[in-house]
């Protein structure tokens, strides 16, 4: 991953992406000043009045879940943020509702720790309908066996690196050939060591080693996370065996999950890219997302 160097002032990259955010739970106007040019909203958000300071957005709109399933009982999700499906017909209709609301990605939840999960027929129908409409499917998989189930059903991506259990090597190898994982390591403890952080880091290390595609994502809106590049997420990615080049690739994919996100900003980082990983993490933390005219002022 090579950035374009701006007259000795700093490096320019394709706009940095946070592939897992919840704009309805944060002040999204602050993201561009924190270096984030593009986001994928994975539940709860619907287009409001466009604002100049918003990043480029692809979104899922409602969470597709089982009746009473996560996150409908979580307390943080508004009542109209979930679309609940008991049958295959319900599930296909729910996907159509999201597409009609402008969604370009489908979010399904399979969280057996927090309540009932979509049954096999409803899950298959949701994925089938989403793929017919050209929507990639991102799953929140939590609880024993749910990641395996989601993968077998054909989801394209995980909203979180699996963190409930150690995934077997043969399963990880198979997942690495076709799936994308959105990292979200730091959400497990926000800098404090937790079992979920250790499990996820180990799964991500082996997924990445096997060639699996990783996107930087933070689950922004879920707990005390900075509005912009999260240095702790970067450190966690480096800790899971990604090189600094791999981290940049996870931040600036051309068409993440095949989505045609608008590209109205680049990400600019003042100064030269450091070789030392700790200094690299600090350096990324000073990133800003700039429009072409804002960049011109710098030149
Ligand atoms: Zn989330």
- Please tell me the overall pLDDT: 95
**Biggest sheet descriptor:** 7 strands, parallel
Fill in the CATH topology.
TIM Barrel
CATH architecture: Alpha-Beta Barrel
Number of helices: 9
The count of strands amounts to 14
Report the span from N to C terminus: 22 Å
CATH class: Alpha Beta
Overall outline = globular
Helix content: 25-40%
Give the SSE order as H and E letters.
EEEEEEEHEHEHEHEHEHHEHEH
Strand order of the largest sheet: 7-6-8-9-10-11-12
* Strand-residue proportion: 15-25%
Number of domains: 1
Low-confidence stretches: none
Structural class: alpha/beta
User: Could you give me the name of the CATH homologous superfamily?
Assistant: Metal-dependent hydrolases
| Heterogens | zinc ion
Task: Explain what you see.
The protein is an alpha/beta fold. The protein has a single domain (16-263), classed as TIM Barrel. It is 30% helix and 19% strand. The chain contains 9 helices and 14 strands. It has helices spanning 88-100, 120-132, 146-153, 169-178, 195-209, 231-239, 244-251, 277-284, 292-298; strands spanning 4-6, 10-14, 16-21, 36-41, 56-59, 63-65, 82-84, 106-111, 137-142, 157-158, 180-182, 213-215, 266-270, 288-290. It has a 7-stranded parallel sheet with strand order 7-6-8-9-10-11-12. It has a 4-stranded antiparallel sheet with strand order 1-2-13-14. The chain has a 3-stranded parallel sheet with strand order 3-4-5. Helix 5 links the parallel strand 11 (180-182) and strand 12. Helix 1 packs parallel to helix 2 (120-132). The protein is globular, with a radius of gyration of 19 Å. The two termini are 22 Å apart. The model has no long low-confidence stretch (mean pLDDT 95). The structure holds zinc ion.
């Amino acid at each position: 991953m090579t950035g374009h160097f701006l007259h000795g002032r700093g490096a320019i990259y394709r706009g940095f992406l946070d592939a897992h955010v919840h704009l309805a739970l944060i002040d999204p106007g602050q993201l561009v000043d924190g270096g984030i040019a593009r986001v994928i909203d994975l539940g709860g958000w619907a287009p409001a009045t466009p604002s100049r300071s918003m990043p480029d957005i692809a979104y899922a709109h409602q969470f597709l879940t089982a009746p009473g399933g996560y996150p409908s009982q979580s307390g943080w999700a508004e009542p109209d943020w979930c679309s609940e499906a008991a049958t295959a017909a319900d599930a296909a209709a729910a996907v159509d509702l999201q597409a009609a609301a402008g969604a370009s990605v489908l979010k399904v939840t399979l969280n057996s720790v927090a309540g009932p999960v979509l049954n096999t027929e409803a899950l298959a129908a949701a994925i089938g309908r989403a793929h017919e409409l050209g929507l990639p499917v991102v799953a929140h998989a939590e609880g024993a066996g749910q990641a395996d189930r989601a993968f077998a059903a054909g989801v394209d991506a995980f909203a979180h690196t699996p963190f409930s259990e150690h995934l077997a090597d043969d399963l990880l190898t198979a997942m690495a050939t076709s799936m994308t994982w959105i990292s979200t390591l730091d959400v497990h403890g926000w800098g404090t060591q937790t079992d979920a952080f250790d499990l996820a880091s180990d799964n991500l290390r082996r997924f990445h080693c096997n060639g699996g595609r990783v996107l930087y994502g933070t689950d922004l809106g879920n707990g005390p996370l900075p509005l912009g590049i999260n240095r702790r997420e970067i450190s966690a990615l480096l800790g899971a065996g990604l090189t600094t080049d791999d981290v940049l690739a996870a931040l600036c994919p051309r068409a993440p999950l095949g989505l045609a996100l608008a590209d109205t900003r680049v990400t600019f980082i003042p100064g030269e890219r450091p070789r030392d990983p700790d200094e690299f993490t600090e350096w990324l933390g000073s990133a800003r997302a700039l429009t072409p005219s804002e960049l011109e002022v710098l030149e």
